[in-house]
Amino acid sequence: MKRILSLLIFLIIANVSAQSDAEMLKTIYTQSLTNGKSYSWLDYLSNQIGGRLSGSLSAERAVAYTKEELDSLGLDKVWLQPVMVPKWVRGNKEYAFLESSSGSTSTVNICALGGSIATPIGGLKAAVIEVQGIEEMKALGKEAVSGKIVFFNRAMQPEIIQTFEAYGGCADQRYSGAMEAGKLGAVGVIVRSLNLRLDDFPHTGSMTYGNLPISQRIPSAAISTNDAEKLSTMLTLDKNTKFFFNQTCRQLDDVESHNVIGEITGSEFPNEYIIVGGHLDSWDLGDGSHDDGAGVVQSMDVLRLLKESGYKPKRSIRVVLFMNEENGLRGALKYAEVAKQKGENHIFSLESDSGGFTPRGFDFECDDAFMTKIEGWKNLFKPYLIHHFEKGYSGADVAPLKTANNVSAGLRPDSQRYFDHHHAATDLFEHVNKRELELGAATMASLVYLIDKYGI
Amino acid sequence: MKRILSLLIFLIIANVSAQSDAEMLKTIYTQSLTNGKSYSWLDYLSNQIGGRLSGSLSAERAVAYTKEELDSLGLDKVWLQPVMVPKWVRGNKEYAFLESSSGSTSTVNICALGGSIATPIGGLKAAVIEVQGIEEMKALGKEAVSGKIVFFNRAMQPEIIQTFEAYGGCADQRYSGAMEAGKLGAVGVIVRSLNLRLDDFPHTGSMTYGNLPISQRIPSAAISTNDAEKLSTMLTLDKNTKFFFNQTCRQLDDVESHNVIGEITGSEFPNEYIIVGGHLDSWDLGDGSHDDGAGVVQSMDVLRLLKESGYKPKRSIRVVLFMNEENGLRGALKYAEVAKQKGENHIFSLESDSGGFTPRGFDFECDDAFMTKIEGWKNLFKPYLIHHFEKGYSGADVAPLKTANNVSAGLRPDSQRYFDHHHAATDLFEHVNKRELELGAATMASLVYLIDKYGI
Question: Which of B124, B324, B153, B305 is nearest to B225 (CA)?
């Protein structure tokens, strides 16, 4: 009888608690959709500040703006965390054309990859060798590659449902293509943009020369998908087609920048930290609305939504706006280093860096026990059409915080449109939908609430 | 032992069958994403033909074009089904302004609602009474309303997650507002556009006068959400603000049009019909890409995808492109009438009329036994992130086919952006994403395949 009674009491408590969790989520979602701040913050970040390349004036303006906005929220602490970041500048707009063996030319759309060196002054013209990837190039060997421009033309696979997976299948040619081609004596590298759509916009992104001697470093650029198709066709028709490109980008000395951090200090376990963040820097071609303005403003709104909903966290909840995710990850490394020095116990880190589209759920880096806990929360998210709770990659900025005992997660929005915009001039505020952005912020705030309340 | 053996055999067969179903879905999705036709069909329908108001020349061009494309697919039968449809024409572009009591004016963006009469020649100017809905207007009574323009300003509720529900909560003022206001002696009706966003585009849509005598019929128009806010603010500041509008729309005699139908005849049960469809007509302000060009081309591609995947249906599968969903439903009524006359047994009807966005699942009108069957198919759809299988409303065009013994369903795409475009000049091809459209077509084809194979 006693056991039945305590079971009964347990069930009543569990039910009341589930009830109040459901109500709390409803409050959070309603707040976000009727009174959210994320969209107006993004409007300012995108339209008044714009692209925020690490070390640029606009990156510094974004630091100042977001700090000021966090200051206005009445958090317990807001501060800047200094970090040295690389400063790469694009220079003049790049210029490129194809030249047939008869001498006729046709311009194409390119952009320098982030971290690339410039072409020789006045540009570079050479014969082109098209390959589908680094292995194919290596198999062709030095003789075939030397003195040429290597054209990496492997396309993202459209039949892969989750587009980030298709991206992962092609990103090596952009990141390491120039390094590997340089070793074989190539003079330049052109990479098909990582875009599932056929259009005229080149997509930039980071690349590396590794430890390659300066003499072997060659310039590399991305070409739009339409122009990749054009170049490939031209090479089929006329294998002596030459490629010309001119770019004046260069790497300057590192400069000081900042992570922006805000905190609501926990009432019961102030040294247990839950962080939520995105990255403040972006590429320079668009205004960085999806990558990662969206993650920045959603993360800021998580703390505001919890405050507005009247919730008093037991643990310390921080928003961290990381600097330099795109071409260095210096902000994330600095944040993790300082956290370690101070002995801060980061139990959970949540990143939003997959665009501001309709949220579908989260990927978690965690143990099975935590996944069982998540399973129990699924029904709370069902009214909001959040259904994806899987083990998977969380994100670059929270990765340095991961230990064997904590949990990290990444928000997973619908990914179908993301690579239409990623790192291109089309990453613009007008392509972010207010409701989709707000639903993402509410979904993040809901998960943070549950983890603060029940722990990991 | 015998029972165990037969259970074992059953389990093996079930497993093999699940395996092959998973493979079949993979084939369908891959076909759609790598070799789909839906997007190029939509390109033509939207950019070469454009808005397709019932009875218009472009509606007839859409009939001819889709028939021709279906003819080219090698189906067993393709035909046109004649149907008389209403013909309403917008006339000149509408014009409207607010006039303060001091006489200063400010133009606003409006469009006539479909089916509305014109204003008197030269336009109509009157004092305005703002209400949140029909009941509030009725409560104010004849004295308050008579001689005025009634301004229905109830906004869609942003906190409702499924936007069609928010739409349903406001559509009555657009559909019946003028009829009810006419009874109380109002001279015109202005309705806040059914749009969750604040922007400058008025959204049209159908309205009715019911059996109201012609003398009581008054013109009605939609106003953009930004201008609804402006009008409301002006009325607060200056309750003598007047509204002027001029529109020259009119209802002409009915004209003949057509449903477009294509069929793969079933190999085992040719008189059991499975249909999949969308509506070929659209409003005239945009090009009707989301409403319902998307549903049209997805439905066409369902039959092509099944053919290309090498599947031979047991039952007869039809694509039906319905004419006149927007302002009459005549095509759907005609199709159901002819089906009944011929004694065709329609076991399952699937409609796509909620935009060409990322598919999330289906709503079903069915019994519990069918929902149990659907439950068993859920895992097949999981790799494609399709998770929503609920009882709910299927769609207007398949509604006349519903009986106690059959099943109807509606594709449910992500709904967050839909009302940014619905019935407005912003319903344009550029707002449809190729992959999202193709995922929808594959999701529909997969369900049709399973239902053909296993029945309802």
Answer: B153
